Amino acid sequence: MNLLYSLVTQQDSSNNVEIARATKADSSSMRTIAALTMVFLPGAYISGLFGMAFFNLTDNGDFVVSQTVWIYVVITVQLTLMTFALWLAWERPNDTPRMGWARLEKLID
Fold it and tell me: How high is the mean pLDDT of the chain?
């Protein structure tokens, strides 16, 4: 009976390690998606805020760009950098290994 219990426990542990590997891969994918979102979100917000006031179509059919389009670029770059800085500050405390976490990572890798 103990042999059967040990075999089931061993199989269960093996399944848990596989789940941990899949969770780690999924976590890195979610971080990539979050980083891409942080790149494009400030620009989308600012462009929505400003609307289409920077681009005009003349009566001749010419496309004219406003002289103040640089404001959009400056604000968007600053907001993007600020968003990344806040994200890094938010994530930094969570990167410290906890008791036993380093051992689990060795098992997963």
Answer: 76
